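Exercise: predict the fold of this chain.
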Amino acid sequence: MAKSRTTSHFLYVPDRSAAERAGRALARAGFRSEAGPASDGEDWLLIATHDAVPSKERDIATQEAMREIALAVGGTYNGYEVRRP
């Protein structure tokens, strides 16, 4: 049986208001999130985290959802990182 893993997704959004809107959308979709000013400019970095058993289909669907949420608030999706035990 596959073990659950923790994955963090990175979204860059234009400002605090966009980060708050994206954070609400992420919460509705079952993700934990935290946001703050990005270190390299005026954008805000939003980190969305979730635990799930790995699945190619789930991974693709999650990445598509992240892109949609980021685009809906004028931002971009910048990939993910899997936390290894």
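Check your answer against the key: The chain has a mean pLDDT of 94.
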